[in-house]
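[job 0412] stage=complex_fold ligand=pyridoxal-5'-phosphate status=START
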Amino acid sequence: MKQFIYADNAATTKLDKVAFEAMIPWLTEEYGNASQPYSFARNPKKALAKARETIAACINAHPEEIFFTSGGTESDNWAIKGSALLNHDKHATITSAIEHHAVLRACSSIERMGYPVAYVNPDRNGTVSPEAFKDIITDNTNLVSIMLANNEIGSIEPIEELAAIAHSHGALFHTDAVQAVGHIPIDVQKLGVDMLSASAHKFNGPKGIGFLYIKRGVKVGTFTDGGSQERGLRAGTENVAAIVGMATALEQNCKNLDENQKHIESLECKFLDDLSGLDFIRNGSEKHLPGNISLSFRHASGEAILHRLDLNGICISTGSACDSVNTQVSHVIRAIGVPDEYALGTIRISLGKENTEEEIYQIEKALRQLLKRE
Ligand code: PLP
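[job 0412] stage=complex_fold status=DONE, emitting structure tokens
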């Protein structure tokens, strides 16, 4: 029996049962190395090709544009460092102030190597406006990396417009879509991006596996040197079971995307209605990820709320999971200018397809009770 309420789906998600079952043969009987020439390697090799096709179909890409990685962090690092180090005519990178640390720290790394990085600020809702972006892009911009949806506040960025502006200056456009893939429709052609990062554990796949979409013809440097896997760009024996699990989970989520989205949105509406009367700010833009609810309570401590909810068996987050040891106001909450008396009282509740109305009611009840005591 379930002992707790999980409402931290932006940190990670439960592994899909169909995906889990699809992984088993590759962990048990079919353990051959996909790069070997003998017949025992034939099935793993076919499984990799099929997974690439499945993933490509889910985001309207071509199979040869999908490169397997160890997850979102690696995909972001590859896109940013691989672009900066390869292109010697143009040197500058642009990103936003509200990116995940996988992007921000990869940008700090290239800055230390002498490649300049400019940071565009979002508006109060966490949206990077095309106007603000136009003000800082130049013809020396080599790469732009702006996330598709923010992990802390859920805002969805106007990627189509931003990518078009980047291209008009001859720059490449990468988007960190880790929070969006498997949750909202993604069409790389329509978005017009050159690279896109995704991570399986955010869409009910296994942990430690992800992919980087690299558009045909786009040149990015090698991420790891070694064997000829991933067309020589990312060497290392493939984790066939995890790759099959990722493709199956994505296929499952994409098949049920509308249904899941409707369910999560109705839980979100109910939850916010139930919270009426409490003194809080809802962060993020109107166009946001379903179920990503960032709330800042006046004169409260997000950390205390997290721990008290934990005592009630409820898992939520203060900022992003990667920052749960950091008690300071997150860079995202700072960048969007949440007033001081609210900023420290920020929590993130992120609902998933498995959550129920009863759970929403339990979270609301526990939250109301503890805020009365604060
Ligand atoms: N990018 C975003 C927006 C994320 O939310 C995360 C994880 O929280 C990552 C990148 C890192 O992904 P991974 O955990 O697969 O390394």
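The chain has a mean pLDDT of 95.
[job 0412] exit 0
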